[in-house]
TrEMBL record:
Recorded superkingdom: Eukaryota
PANTHER family cross-referenced by the UniProt entry: PHOSPHATIDATE PHOSPHATASE APP1, PHOSPHATIDATE PHOSPHATASE APP1 CATALYTIC DOMAIN-CONTAINING PROTEIN
One of the Pfam families matching this protein, by short name: APP1_cat
Gene source species: Lithohypha guttulata
Protein's UniProt name: Phosphatidate phosphatase APP1 catalytic domain-containing protein
Residue intervals of the Phosphatidate phosphatase APP1 catalytic domain: 276-420
């Protein structure tokens, strides 16, 4: 068993200095940009010369700690569930399931249609339609159980109750599908009297669109991974849709993919002004415990999704008191498991549009870049709307990307709300970095512990901070062992380990962190 202190040390170094690779231009080209005038791109950044130097120091520090016997996978430190890395596609699925391509041929083509959003430009609506086309192999129950067991740690499908077994099998079947490339998609668009994906009647949000019945073929075929993602122009002259100028409630339209009964989704036409909540899901809307891989996988595969405390009350209150609000759920969870997330959200939270990780963003570096890419896409699609960003501190990409959005898009970020998982769950040992919040107005953001901390805030007028909620932001790494924290203020801690740090001019050297933590662990063992 690897000592917790050594595990945390390696985890810290690998989080602190692993810069995710940005999406390649080939990857970006697979997703259609929003239909708005082009603005300066925010999708790329240049690493300065310091990055190359610190990466070498980080490599040395990681080597030092590896000598202590620790080997923590990078995707765990990045807040990604182990089972959700490099999921099988295409021939890998057939091989794993023991199914031939000829066995797949008679299976019906299915469509995962993800609820989209539409914007108003000039005199018409542009609706984003995105999802995946696939076939589901006929896999025996015994094989499905064997495959499902690969996603569970220290347990198996046989050990779960009936509800857990059903969930594990259904989710595994959703993962082991074969994507269909070069497919043409045609959609029917009608008023949306119901909410959510595939016509779920729960949820809420927006109003039913009036008078639309249009059939549109998407301009592009599906990608090699079976994905489609494009904006289509709705014919305003032949509809009774309300124009999207000013601030009006989102209009719901149902989008049906022809040729299948699985490709239905409710999408939202969103006006050019107003508030949009962009919300993560794991550990902010539901109990996942991504920072505890064993529990995280069990909560995803073997247990029903459970809301986090009374968070639905907060969202319900916003939806009722601010009827023009638009909800957008953005998760980096793989596209294949989207249905479970949509089903949970629409039965528990207000209806809204959705973004997940498409299959062309499949490896760890791309996964860590996809959140910023999707955030940019929403912000650029609605340049006059203001955004409320919701997530938790266990995701390094959130801690980096959310404050960066406030800098990249001045005036568009209304509030940033982050659940402090370290303060609310003793099983979370992941350090988190608050450096990005330096120089941001405290009234713009708040780290909170319970949903009730979000009550009685005037978010419409930009009051996002409850002064009664402790913040304790050091603008560096927090949640370190022994109460250590990093900042540029050279704060002195009253313990033996931190006394080793006195005189160090900067905590941001990976080598310094590695040596300090290693020494601290030696002292603590004495």
């Amino acid at each position: 068993m690897v000592p917790y202190e050594v595990w945390t040390a390696t985890l810290l170094v690998s989080i602190a200095y692993a810069h995710p690779t940005q999406p390649t231009r080939a990857e970006l080209s697979l997703i259609t940009p929003p239909p708005i005038p082009q603005t300066p791109e925010h999708l790329y950044y240049r690493r300065d010369i310091i990055d190359s130097l610190t990466s070498k120091a980080a490599s040395y520090g990681e080597s030092l700690l590896s000598d202590l016997g620790s080997a923590i996978p990078s995707y765990v430190t990045d807040g990604i569930l182990p089972g959700y890395v490099d999921l099988p596609t295409g021939s890998q699925v057939l091989s794993s399931a023991g199914v031939s391509s000829s066995d797949l041929d008679p299976q019906p083509t299915q469509v995962l249609n993800i609820p989209g959003y539409g914007n108003w430009t000039g005199s018409q609506w542009n609706l984003r339609v995105h999802g995946n086309v696939f076939k589901q192999p006929d896999i025996s129950n015994d094989t499905i159980d064997d495959l499902a067991n690969l996603f569970l740690i220290d347990t198996s499908v046989a050990d779960l109750d009936q509800t857990g077994q059903d969930q594990a099998r259904n989710l595994t079947r959703a993962i082991y599908v074969v994507q269909q490339d070069d497919m043409n998609i045609t959609v029917n668009i009608l008023p949306g009297p119901q909410f959510g994906g595939d016509g779920e009647s729960d949820g809420g949000g927006g109003m039913t669109a009036a008078g639309i019945n249009q059939t549109i073929q998407l301009p592009y075929e599906t990608t090699l991974q079976g994905d489609f993602d494009t904006f289509i122009k709705l014919d305003q002259a032949n509809s009774d849709l309300t124009a999207g100028t000013g601030e009006i409630p989102p209009q719901r339209v149902n989008v049906y993919a022809q040729g299948t009964d699985t490709g239905n989704a409710t999408s939202y036409l969103v006006s050019d002004n107003g508030l949009t909540v962009i919300s993560d899901i794991d550990d902010i809307l539901r109990v996942t415990k991504i920072y505890d891989p064993e529990e995280g996988l069990l909560n995803s595969f073997g247990r029903p999704f459970v809301q986090w405390m009374n968070m639905p009350d907060i969202y319900r209150n916003w939806s009722v008191s601010l009827p023009n609000m638009h909800f957008h759920y953005l998760t980096t969870t793989p596209e294949q498991v989207t249905r479970n997330y949509m089903d949970f959200v629409y039965k528990t939270y207000p209806g809204g549009s959705f973004d997940t990780r498409p299959l062309n963003f499949s490896d760890v570096s791309a996964t860590l870049a996809i959140r910023k890419f999707l955030l940019d896409k929403v912000f650029q699609t609605f340049p006059n709307r203001k955004f409320i960003l919701m997530a938790d501190t266990s995701n390094p990409d959130v801690m980096r990307d959310y404050p960066q959005m406030a800098k990249d898009y001045p005036g568009q970020v209304q509030c940033i709300f982050l659940r402090n998982t370290s303060a609310t769950d003793s099983s979370n040992h992941f350090p988190y970095n608050t450096e990005g919040f330096r120089n941001l107005n405290q009234q713009m953001y708040m780290f909170f512990r319970t949903p009730d901390d979000l009550t009685n805030l005037d978010i419409v007028n930009g009051q996002c901070y409850n002064s009664s909620i402790p913040q304790n932001v050091s603008f560096g790494y927090q949640g370190l062992p022994f109460g250590l924290e990093t900042s540029n203020s050279n704060t002195t801690d009253n313990n033996t380990a931190s006394s080793l740090l006195r005189g160090v001019s900067s905590w941001y050297s990976p080598l310094s962190l590695s040596l300090v933590l290693a020494c601290a662990f030696l002292f603590s063992a004495l």
